[in-house]
Prior knowledge:
Elements: H1 4-15, H2 18-34, E1 45-48, E2 55-59, H3 73-83, H4 90-93
Antiparallel strand pairs: 1-2
Helix pairs in contact: 1-2
Amino acid sequence: xxxxxxxxxxxxxxxxxxxxxxxxxxxxxxxxxxxxxxxxxxxxxxxxxxxxxxxxxxxxxxxxxxxxxxxxxxxxxxxxxxxxxxxxxxxxxx
Length: 94
């Protein structure tokens, strides 16, 4: 989850740019679907196919194992999602 997500939401709302808000929302939904696990732990890296958008691999390159949580990513996710009120309900909006 990137810190720029907050900036996209803020700028989109501040200047009335719906496209920026939609990009941020799509990114947040993609992260929730593919990076954040059901138990809210996170993968370090998800590799997507550039042509199809399909997930190729889910890895934890700097962690213990691919199914373990990358400790630096988890705090970032915990910080980013609640800080953007527009994405608080994405888990149920699918």
